[in-house]
Amino acid sequence: MTTPDLDALAHDIKLWAAELGFDQAGITGTDLSGEEPLLERWLAKGYHGDMEYMERHGMMRARPHELLPGTLRVISVRMSYLPEHAAIAHVLSDPEKGYISRYALGRDYHKVLRNRLKKLAEKIQSRAEQLVARPFVDSAPVLERPLAANAGLGWTGKHSLLINREQGSFFFLGELLVNLPLPVDSPVEEGCGNCVACLTICPTQAIVEPYVVDARRCISYLTIELDGPIPQEFRPLMGNRIYGCDDCQLICPWNRFAGASQEPDFAPRKQLHAPQLLELFSWNETHFLKVTEGSPIRRIGHRRWLRNIAVALGNAPASPMVVQALKEKRDNVDDMVREHIDWALAQQSGKLEQQNRKTARLIRAVDKGMSAHAR
Question: E strands along the chain, which residues?
Answer without folding.
Answer: 24-28, 73-80, 99-100, 133-136, 155-156, 162-163, 171-178, 207-209, 212-213, 241-243
